[in-house]
Amino acid sequence: MTDASSSSALKSCDAPASTEEVLPLSVNQRHSAPIPLRNFGATCYLNSIVQCLLCTPGLLRALISDRERIVHEWEVERLSTTKRASSEAHRRSCAERNVPATSSLVDLYTAHPAPPIPVSQLLLNLKEACASSNDEFSSNGQKDAHEFLLTLLGVIHKEVCHSKPDVCEVFREVEDETKWEAYARLVRRLQQENNSTIYRFFGGITGCTIQCAKCHLVSYRFEAQLVISLPMTYRLPTLGSKIVMKCTSGKRDGKTQAEGSIAVDEMLREMFFSERGELLNGSMQVTCDRCKKLRDKTIWYSIEQWPPILVLHLKRFNNAGVKNESAVVFPYTFCSIENLEYQLYSVCCHRGSASFGHYTSYAYVQGEDEAAETDNNTATAATVVSDLFQSPLASMNSERLFSPRERQPTGCVGGFFTSDSISKENGSDSKGASETHNRNGNRKVNGKDEPLPEETESKTGKWYLCNDKHITEVTAPDVLSMTKEAYILFYRRVDGRHATVS
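The structure corresponding to this sequence follows.
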């Protein structure tokens, strides 16, 4: 909502939430370890996603500012009409009514040592807020963590967004439009509808180039993404790849029995950086805008804007609910095609089948000094994305906008730089003097393991396994070993810095 209209759109919050002592909303002490979360019966999906979001660098501090902004707008409106200052109880009541999901997540973030509301009630508040947007969460029972993540992020986005939902430009295809022109139109739309903390942190942009096989008409489409879903496809090894991805046809207990393994970098290459593209023919034909008939088409996908927080969803479940249990090898750090370095900070895991399973999560909690540095770096990266959505289009670099089949940078293999990329163990085929981090916490230089320098070791941050009420300290190698359980991977931008595996 805009500053001019947000105060009038706020609900009435004159009644205090409680007669008991109320903690100020400004209290935002960071807890030093994940807090135990109660399972209300098959709500492990909720707990696992909450733990992943709570350890997202910089996110909760930004949401605290959003909550303060919205409450302040209400205070200004209330003061102008009643001439009375609001109490802390009134301010908290306003937050709980107008931004219930945001307020509950923030209170969970500050729940150590004592929350203003019981932790169990905060979890129920989150579930209720999501149920109001998605009926899937209005009932009890096992739910999908990926769908819950998308729903929760969408709910929070609507609560804290600055933009009006009814002024967005309708995005239509324009014949003979260049890729730059199509992208510029999308950015104008994003300026209108995605002006929120959620898109500043998680918002990336994917694109696709579509070409008609008959008339060769080329069109472009772009979409803002909060989470990137990677299909668990199986292909024979391609040139330069050492990963064999195949699957047996046998099933047991609703699970596909797989052999071999898949690497996350291979999945990203296959989806977004494949030069051959994907052929749409037969029943998949699409009507061509120029031919006015069903035609075969080739489509190439790309990542046009990498987000500060990169969330990768591994599509382990098909439409029939059958789970793919292939081992997915994922890196601790990797570099994107634009030389942006990412580091793993959380993993949502699933064990079991679609109908009978359990979610857990691994979360990296930083110390105060480390958190201050990371929050600043993440906030800077988020500002870059915010500037993309809000700055004049003339300042944008159109040279960055290319499809994978048009140009590949020197030193880049399949969308990822060979230097400081993923180790061969994790599926890349890089050669030469590349430096990577393996599962034992050493770095690999020219194929040899060398200990990490003492000054780069993390002395404050710790990894934790979050299993509802049970919180256990673990190591990074423990996390990287979850190749068959990993379901959603959370990475943060760490440009210019080398991550350590502790």
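The chain has two domains: 3-160, 179-195+203-493.
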